[in-house]
Design goal:
Bound molecules: 2-acetamido-2-deoxy-beta-D-glucopyranose
Distance between the termini: 58 Å
Strand content: 35-45%
Structural class: mainly beta
Helix content: 10-25%
Number of helices: 6
Number of strands: 30
Radius of gyration: 32 Å
Shape: extended
Length: about 525
């Protein structure tokens, strides 16, 4: 129930019945013509069987000013502003509306409006309905809009630049056939992205736009636009942007329109600066205590910035991430347009980077979960987690992959297993295929060919129940990295191939994949 009905019910509780029927109150802009249209129809007449009258008013600090009022019984609409058209049917099951149009409109009309209807319900008790709307005039362009309008260094997480043109008619344009967005730097024009009716939208080579969206068409109520979006924009994003619109005018001649925008930046606000300063001071104090070199701090900062930059680059898999040895949460941008994926990238050595899909190290996350959890993923990339088959399948698209498993046993000995062939089958078996490493059949290779089972799903739920996890069980398994944390035996976090791998639960597990270098 929206707020206005709630208020209405509150008001009516003493005077009349509370009804479900609602007014439809919309604003519409065509060129510089703007209209407010309040309409009503109660097909069932359950709430309103007779309409007596309707009125549209402007809400101001001093009260409500009626702009148009009309009754179902006789007389023409009373208009105090704009051009009013209306049809008010006595019968609540027929459509009634009051429409006010201003042509041209100007910004003095911007504000809040309310529409009211009074009528009778089936038992002839009075019914009052009301609905509010607010009017803002849409900028028609052609123009360039940046959101936010000013880059706040270090605080702006998402920046978008949009080329737009609204209401082609009023610009004497019958069709826009293409829009291009360029960045102008040192007098050089770099085309970042373009959209055209013939070729769709594409991000130009050399441009690092993270997302794009666009609309080109003849729907008079939509703006034709092209929008580019960046993540974690840096200072180098500021400067001059130019949009070019190509099309045909109403007499069939080509038109070419340009618009520009200068993106500036501000340093963070005072409050933010104080907060940052506080943080830095705390860090500084702890650093002085530990008597560490301040350059270490600077390096940490520099690394953080690099992590953010890598996240904004649009990687499709961790393999291409360029960071020093370590593990980092990075945002991936799969090609399927289904949104971003946050993953943990493990840089084992420069150029040897893996996408982690399972990680355990302290038992904080329960892995005894059902199929939906294993499909969607659980935990956090900053802690223990299972990325989820959904995400894995979106990242592992074409090509061949290998899997790497890093595990530590209870005495702190580390083991690494790499199977050069790795694939996960289709939903919902997610069949495992691994090969290329000889674990004597006592490692992951035993599970190759098996479908994934959880306690509530898959071919072998009894194994998932017995072994406390989700896994590629084949009458259970020799490996059980999603098993019970801290539990000895097969149902624990186990890997039979290792010397102690089933006697004591493992203390660290990581499963990760990357593309095979050979085609
Ligand atoms: C705006 O209203 C005027 C007057 O009613 C009309 O002539 C004109 O065509 C309208 N423009 C648009 C874009 O609808
Ligand atoms: C007002 O809205 C109603 C319902 O959508 C519609 O039938 C009617 O034609 C509109 N009136 C005008 C003048 O646009
Ligand atoms: C804006 O529009 C209103 C209503 O049509 C009109 O009364 C007013 O004079 C206009 N103001 C300007 C500045 O054009
Ligand atoms: C559109 O064409 C009309 C008539 O040719 C002209 O008066 C008007 O200024 C033009 N408008 C624009 C935005 O070019
Ligand atoms: C801004 O910096 C990022 C990261 O260093 C780089 O990828 C991008 O090309 C730069 N953009 C411009 C417009 O120079
Ligand atoms: C496990 O590690 C996570 C992430 O570092 C931490 O938030 C959590 O408190 C730890 N839990 C336990 C039980 O140690
Ligand atoms: C195992 O790897 C960890 C880092 O993941 C390291 O701290 C530890 O020293 C290694 N253990 C041995 C026995 O090498």
């Amino acid at each position: 129930m929206d707020r206005s009905i709630m208020l209405l019910c509150f008001y009516l509780v003493l005077t009349a019945v509370c009804v479900g029927a609602q007014l439809d109150f919309r604003t519409r802009q065509r060129g510089r013509n703007v209209s407010l249209n309040c309409s009503f129809r109660d097909a069932s007449t359950a709430d309103v069987s007779f309409v007596i009258g309707m009125a549209v008013s402007r809400i101001s600090d001093t009260g409500e000013e009626v702009l148009a009022s009309v009754t179902s019984v006789g007389s023409a609409p009373v208009s105090h502003s704009g051009v009013v058209t209306s049809r008010v049917s006595l019968d609540g099951s027929h459509e009634s509306y009051v429409n006010i149009e201003w042509s041209p409109a100007n910004s003095s009309l911007e504000g809040d409006y309310i529409c009211r209807l009074n009528g009778l319900d089936p038992s002839n008790s009075p019914v009052l309905l009301s609905q509010e709307t607010s009017l803002t005039l849409q900028d028609q362009g052609p123009g360039v809009r940046a959101t936010p309008e000013i880059l706040e260094v270090g605080l702006t997480r998402i920046l978008s630049i949009k080329c737009y043109i609204f209401d082609l008619d009023s610009h004497n344009v019958s069709e826009v056939s293409s829009i291009g967005l360029s960045y102008i730097h040192d007098g050089i024009d770099q085309l970042l992205i373009a959209t055209s009716t013939s070729e769709g939208t594409d991000i130009k080579p050399g441009s690092d736009v993270a997302f794009s969206s666009s609309y080109l068409g003849n729907d008079q109520d939509q703006e034709n636009f092209l929008e580019a979006t960046w993540q974690n924009p840096g200072l180098n994003r500021t400067g001059k942007y130019e949009c070019t619109f190509n099309g045909i005018d109403t007499s069939g001649n080509p038109v070419f329109i340009e618009a520009t925008y200068e993106l500036n930046h501000v340093e963070p606000s005072k409050e933010e600066l104080i907060r940052e300063l506080e943080e830095l001071r705390n860090k500084f104090e702890s650093l002085s205590k530990e008597n560490q070199d301040l350059s270490a701090e600077r390096e940490t900062m520099a690394l953080k910035i690099r992590i953010l930059e890598e996240s904004g680059k649009g990687h499709k898999i961790c393999d291409t991430v360029d960071l020093p040895v370590g593990q980092y949460p990075i945002t991936l941008f799969p090609d399927d347009g289904q949104g971003l994926v946050e993953v943990l990238c493990d840089v084992v050595s420069p150029g040897d980077v893996w996408t982690v899909f399972q990680k355990r190290f302290n038992g904080s996350e329960s892995f005894s979960r059902g199929f939906v959890a294993y499909d969607q993923g659980f935990g956090s990339v900053r802690g223990e987690h299972w990325l989820g088959f959904k995400q894995v399948k979106r990242i592992m698209t074409t090509g061949q992959y290998q899997i790497r498993v890093d595990i530590s046993d209870h005495s702190g000995v580390n083991y690494t297993r790499i199977y050069p062939q790795f694939s996960v089958g289709a939903f919902d078996g997610y069949r495992l295929t691994v090969s290329g490493y000889n674990d004597g059949g006592h490692g992951l290779s035993f599970s190759s060919g098996a479908d994934f089972s959880t306690l509530d799903h898959g071919p072998q739920p009894h194994c998932a129940i017995q072994d406390n996890g989700g896994w590629w069980y084949d009458n259970c398994a020799f490996t059980n990295l999603n098993g019970q944390w801290g539990q000895s035996g097969e149902s624990g976090v186990s890997w039979f191939e290792l010397p102690d791998g089933r006697i004591h639960s493992l203390t660290k597990t990581e499963m990760k994949f990357k593309k095979s270098s050979q085609p």
